[in-house]
Amino acid sequence: MTYDIPAAERALAFGRAARAYAAYRPEYPAGVFDTVEEFGGLRLAGARVADVGTGTGLAARALRERGARVTGVEPGAGMAEQFRRELPDVPLVRGDGNRLPLADGSLDLVAYAQSWHWTDPARAVPSALRVLRPGGVLALWWNDPDPAVPWVAEQQARIAARFGEGYYISDRTLPAGLSWRTRELRWSRRVSIDFHLAKLATHSAFIVLGEARGAEFLATERAHLLRHFPDGGLDEPYVTTVSVAVRPADRS
């Protein structure tokens, strides 16, 4: 099967699984926020931050815990509703990363956590730079399964065989015209097989496939995992990639 559902449709599909997304998706390691501060030359405490494509607020929560003054930006109704449940005291505006509904020069940091690949960089970059103050910071980061771990590589191959190469949105090309610094962080979390499968089910391909057909694949995947982890628990390994650029102070 070739997975050719348009990216825009996939991006908005998450609203159908917003509660599960909040429950099962991984948070971000502390090193992400250390890296943003180090590479961006700013302190998150007191910083004015937009978390774009905020979803259920995983990054927004962590940024707020660092003392940032966070505003979430989210296009999807279902995800926005869940965000308000998770973080009722954090401001949220409806909008997308291509047309930020925020004032010019109003922010110290614009962050796209697990969301930059849903944008059109030709529109998203000018929009982000417009709302940043001179010297403000643009940060992009992703959690990805670590393909260096054999069982993860095997699982990804099975998913690609089921959904086609279009399953993975793999173009992480950084926008030209900015000076980027990038760091990779490797980490893992201990979860049950069932928890891991519930996390897989929150990915856009499974959501648009439909519950019944997705459940069929996940049942087969559970059998594969039990061969590796007969006690029912596993370490879910991630590579978190963080890329940071600073808006030039003299940008007009």
Query: What is the CA-CA span between the terminal residues?
Result: 48 Å
**What letter string, H or E per element, gives the SSE order?**
HHHEHEHEEHEHEHHHE
The biggest sheet, with number of strands, parallel, antiparallel or mixed sense and barrel status, is:
7 strands, mixed
Please give the domain count. 1
CATH homologous superfamily placement: Vaccinia Virus protein VP39
Low-confidence stretches: none
Number of beta-strand segments: 7
What would the principal axes of the Cα set say about the shape?
globular
Name the beta content range. Answer: 15-25%
Number of helical elements: 10
Helix residue percentage: 25-40%
Entry summary:
By secondary structure, the protein is of the alpha/beta class. It has a single domain (7-246), classed as Rossmann fold (3-Layer(aba) Sandwich).
Can you offer a commentary on this structure?
The protein is of the alpha/beta class and 252 residues long. It has a single domain (7-246), classed as Rossmann fold. 40% of the residues lie in helices and 25% in strands. It has ten helices and seven strands. It has a seven-stranded mixed β-sheet with strand order 3-2-1-4-5-7-6. Strand 1, helix 4 and strand 2 form a beta-alpha-beta unit. Helix 2 packs across helix 8 (193-200) and helix 8 (193-200) packs antiparallel against helix 10. The longest helix is centred in the last third of the chain and has 18 residues, at 211-228. The termini are far apart.
